[in-house]
Amino acid sequence: MPGPLQILGFGALAIDDILYVDQPLSSGKGRVVDRLRDHGGNVATALVAASKLGARAGFIGWLNDALPEDAAARALAAEGVDISFAPRRADAGPIRSLITVGADGERFIAYDDAVPQGTCESLSDTVLVQAKVLLIDGYATHSAAVVARARRLGLAIVADIEWSLGAATEDLLRLSDHLVLPYAFGESQSGEQEPAAILRALWTPERAAVVLTRGALGCYLRQAGEEVLWHLPPHPVQAVDTTGAGDCFHGAYAAALAEGNTALESAVFANAAAALSVAGHGGRRALPDLAACRAKLAEAGAPRPVKFGLA
């Protein structure tokens, strides 16, 4: 991959077995109408999304040292993600997930994550400083010292966190200057329910941005240096499969951020990318390219950010 990397990431790397059923998940049962195997994982899919959008992205989480046998690693490399700086160990491997997708595009993920997480604590500064952005997820609690070092070195830390492990997750949240979180986690973490209240509760003077993604309702944002809050309405789209939509948002956000865009501009771009990603099957198969995102943003009537409250 020519030139320095723009985005690095470590976190979930998965192999997903996906079942599509003919009923909404709320029905309790349904007939299988299709099945496929895809590669996934929060950070891994986000890095693939960034790569498809033209960013130079690298995975630095644990990979198996028998690399030719590591299908998940080969899939990353095949999608343009640099894996040459990833540390190796004999017991590393992908998370295995079984995903059921209902007729309405909603999904339920059952996963087995009993594999090494995080990255090597001795990962060199030379590796880290080649990038502008570090993408992490909740598994980064296993390597918080690397996150702290990346922050000190000047990387923007974009965090995708979906659950709390208590103090370890609190530390990770403090280290992250770009919180890009599912709305439900924002609610549970803040104890608030309204977007403005959640954004205020999660804000600290060290933050660059807090973004709350809310699926079909769009997303909400606060960025440093402004006295307003923003709502980004969703793009009208017929959802086929929402698997990987959040990961796509994170990858697109990181790609735009690495190009020097503001948090708001990055979220606008990511909002369009995520909308495109739900129009096809699989977590990675429907990830859009840069031309598709630009076309989506240029559509007549494409949603624009709306101010909705004082910070």
Written description of the protein model:
- The protein has 311 residues and is α/β, with parallel strands linked by helices.
- Helices cover 31% and strands 24% of the residues.
- The protein has one domain (7-310): UDP-N-acetylmuramoyl-L-alanine:D-glutamate ligase (3-Layer(aba) Sandwich), CATH 3.40.1190.20.
- Helix 1 (42-52) packs across helix 8 and helix 8 (245-258) packs antiparallel against helix 9.
- The chain is globular and about 50 Å long.
- It starts with 6 loop residues before the first strand and ends with a strand.
- The mean pLDDT is 92.
Largest sheet: number of strands, sense, barrel closure? 9 strands, mixed
| Count, helices | 10
In round numbers, the mean pLDDT is: 92
Strand content: 15-25%
Structural class: alpha/beta
Helix fraction, binned, reads 25-40%
CATH class wording: Alpha Beta
Number of strands: 15
Whole-Å distance between the termini?
A: 41 Å
Strands side by side in the biggest sheet:
4-1-9-10-11-12-13-14-15
> Helices and strands, in N-to-C order?
EEEHEEHEEEHEHEHEHHEEEHHHE
CATH superfamily: Ribokinase
Rg to the nearest angstrom?
A: 18 Å
| Overall domain count | 1
CATH topology assignment: UDP-N-acetylmuramoyl-L-alanine:D-glutamate ligase
Identify the CATH architecture: 3-Layer(aba) Sandwich
Poorly predicted spans: none
Shape: globular
